[in-house]
Amino acid sequence: AKGEYGQAIAAARRARQLLPDEHFATTAMAYAYAHTGRTADARAIVEAFESAYAKREMQPVLIAMVWSGIGDRDRAIRWAQTAYDDHDVVFMLFAKSSPELAAIRDDPRYQDILRRMGLAPKTTSSKRYSENAEAHTAYLRARFEFTKRTPQALRNARQSLERAVQLDPGYALAWAALADTYQIAAFYAYEDQPTMIQKCKESGQRAVALDPSLAEAVNSSAQVPEWFFEWDESDRRFKRSIELDARYAPAHHWYAFSLTARGRFDEALRQVREAQEIDPLTPIFIAAEGVVLNQAHRYDEAIVTVRSIIERNPTFHLSYFVIASSYSGKGQYQASIDACLAALKYVPDDHFATTMLAWNYAHVGRAPEARQLAKSAEREYAQHHFQPTLIAVAWAGIGDVDRSIRWLNQAADDHDPVLPLLVKYDHELDAVRGDPRYAQLLRRMGLL
After folding, report:
1. Count of CB atoms situated within 10 Å of the CB of 367
2. Which helix (H) or strand (E) holds 95?
């Protein structure tokens, strides 16, 4: 801050002797390097930081600070935006006053970030962040857990957000995030699906009631109409969310899935790539592009896209399902089975991988095993812990059209969040598409 960079480097080195992985000291060292002619050293550090962030082991605001010191305003702004999107608690502390960010503070893009944080004049939402420190900390902890998409991480996120809204019932942002958590839990049937659907609906409504100008709130309520086949209302809410904050990546991500359900694949790809441009390192946005390409039957592109996630984050289990589905679409059943087993290694109760495994087994002469998996899924459904759409997929693969159609209609009755995404274009349901009852279902859903 005082421009005494030599002393800053010496102090940072002493700190690193005590804690070699101390991020703040390393940031200070890199920033000082950038101001003492050692730009190459500063770049080497920040590139290592970016690699660490891909594993969720680095605060994005520290990356922004180093790029700011180097003088790359665009990269610094992009990482500041990522810090905002990630709800980086360090960014909340230093966004307005840190000298390491001084070089970008007059940039209109950075001023816009400050405005949305409530740290600049004329902010549009007085309740964006809670004045209750414990509630806000719980919210930030939940957002970090949410990105992992595993059953335990989602339970952790839900518990933190329930605590946040208990501490501050007027915290619109936390209500929106809670609705998102319930939505994911319903989609993956990690918990009682009907309960999660109802709670998602209620929490999203509460968020919008508290702050209808909050993009996160409007987006959190946009999925529910789709589950009830109210496509125009879902469209309206997604578009309104993006209008309120075009830099809110999840709105583009979920809108892409809604467009995919209706076969609007080019529009869906534009939306999901917009999400990636805003937040290029979050794996779920890359996986989402794979889902869109898969549903468009562009299987090779889907595989290439999603493999890029596995190269950086081999434990991100959702990647393997997209690859498995794409291989099955190509008729490469053993490769699909291998991908399913890889997913189940990381999340043993992954319903998508289990269903795809049953579908593949039926196509390689292992029908008894396929039936066993399908019947096990039916037993789990009795406890509301399995998506009926996926059970329909399993029976379609086995060739039992009657049973598959029955489960698809059950999915429509239950408002299963998976149904809209898969019902019209997923190749695993090809066996039922010639049945008149399938056409009746599409008409009921407003998709024909």
Report:
1. 15
2. none
